[in-house]
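Bug #77: duplicate submission created two jobs. Keeping one. Sequence:
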Amino acid sequence: MEENQLVIQNELSNENIKNLIYTIRNKQVMLDSDVAMLYHYTTKNINKAVKRNIDRFPEDFCFQLTENEFKTLRFQFGTSKQNENVIEEFRGGRRYFPYAFTEQGIAMLAGVLKNDIAVKVSINIIKSFIEMRKLISSNGQVFERLTNIEYKLLDYDKKFDEVFN
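Kept job's structure:
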């Protein structure tokens, strides 16, 4: 039991969790595959649990990414593989766009999953969300400028592709 707890604590440093938090639709979120990894579940089982308890997950707790959001996120990951019809290159074989969980969605998910790991992991995730919120509020203008630069780079990539084609 102690060995299992040690693995959980090492895996869950706040820095590791913060690296899994993204800003989408002006909300801080974690993707279903990252949540599943942290909770020691499969992504499929996480999404099944959400669908079985859909009343507990309104749009501001959990939402599915759009194609445009997915492409933008893929750009942030630095993946260059393009396949318009299937998104299988994203984290090993997905056939649909990922779901994103807000801080409230993570808390609700812990209640739905009802196991010790989920509860402990959720506490660490929520602490990381809080730290990220403080960081963003203190550096909002810098992040806004970085986001604008990312969008410009995306636009330039499209233009370079057109020129090279």
